[in-house]
Amino acid sequence: MFLDPTDKVERSQKVFAPRLDTLQGKTVGLLDISKSKGAFFLDRVEEILRQQYGVKDVLRRMKPTVTRPAPQPIKNELQEKCDAVIEALSD
Amino acid sequence: MPETAELRSQRTETQEDDPIELLYSRGLTDGLPVVPPTEARVKRMLEATDRDPQELIGTIGPNYGRATIEKIAINAVMAGCHPSYFPTVLAVVEAACEDQFCIHGINVTTFSASPMIIINGPIRQQIGVNCGHNAMGHGFRANATIGRALRLIIINIGGAKPHEITKATMGHPAQYTFCVGENEEESPWEPLHVERGFRADQSTVTLFGGHSPLQINDHASRNAEQLALSLGWTMAGLWNHKNFPLFSDTVLVVCPEHAKTFKQDGWSKNDLRQFLYEKIRRPLRELRPGVNGGEGAGVSMLRTDAKKDREPATDDTLFPKFPKPENITIIVAGGTAGRFSAAVQGWAGGNAGSKITTKVI
Prior knowledge:
The complex is a heterodimer.
Chain A: E1 2-3, E2 27-32, H1 38-53, E3 57-62, H2 72-81, E4 84-88
Chain B: E1 11-12, H1 19-25, H2 39-46, E2 56-60, E3 65-68, H3 69-79, H4 86-97, H5 103-108, E4 114-120, H6 123-127, H7 141-156, E5 179-181, H8 192-195, E6 204-217, H9 224-235, E7 248-254, H10 256-264, H11 269-279, E8 281-283, H12 284-287, H13 299-306, E9 318-320, E10 328-332, E11 340-348, E12 357-360
Parallel strand pairs in B: 4-5, 7-10
Antiparallel strand pairs in B: 2-3, 4-6, 6-11, 6-12, 7-11, 8-9
């Protein structure tokens, strides 16, 4: 017999947001995690999203530091205003 | 633990299985065999404290699992800790859970960071922490298992498993365990915990988010300045030879023979730090991308360079390796023979990373 070394605290069930059929007319969030060249990468992603996928709006936000999770206000804003969010890992 | 306290962790029966293999199969190890955490062993561990097993020390990212006294004890058993180490392990976890230590980032960065534990004070002799020969190596239960307990807690409570949420590019062997005692008896300076505001008769753990140690040889220097230059120019390669300045802290582990040389010339720790800050500099022209390598100068330097309110750097501008003298933490450790010191490069430091953190045992 042994004791469980893991944390088995009940967690809220994570449910995926509904998948999007199209990006046309949608608002897409782009979260720069604050690594070098993130803006360079996301500029191109934004260009492609607007020109090739017809997104209505792009919301750009940046984490204050790469080392910590995004602050809750940023996460809340992205969740409220965006239909989809892309988080960039650059370097 | 209080006599009336009960353990709440789930029990798994193992009559028909080899418990060590069962723990492997459930992904509950660091890759090495662990001591099966039986109820009897966990209770013996908990007898080393009066605290309630359900007391929450903190949460460990990235999963933010709850590090209760009970869960810490179970993992300390698995790591092979003697119960007398348990108060030290609790202090280690307290330090790891401090927000400023940023254990979440340390556990998931591609940099391969890992907590380095430095033990100071009388506890070193009381529980047999090795501070002398092979100070950062194998052979001593306290060093091996206290460091390993934190690694297992990171895996089992924090959920930081390689190939899953942990994506360290390289990793390093010190991730299994990295626990060293300061050789206070061989140091000409005040020990780390006193420098950080604690009394000499207190025992502490200090955590540093870093990488593996780089050993630095200098058997020839017979004065402080020559020795400091050897140490400093070797440390100039940390992260990358062009990361001037670093955006992280560094722990310099000075061996006793090197410490004697600094003592002989009357150098304080601050003298050594200040010297390294002032002397280990290179001109911007050597730090440009594409000059002896593709990587350019440190990100923080380029950002500073870009600020309009500052004097723009020229090719002749000398940039320091260490952003400020206080970014170098100095301890003495190791055996009394051999002129080998070591440098431990830090992960991202300051408010944008991990700050060195000390807790009383």
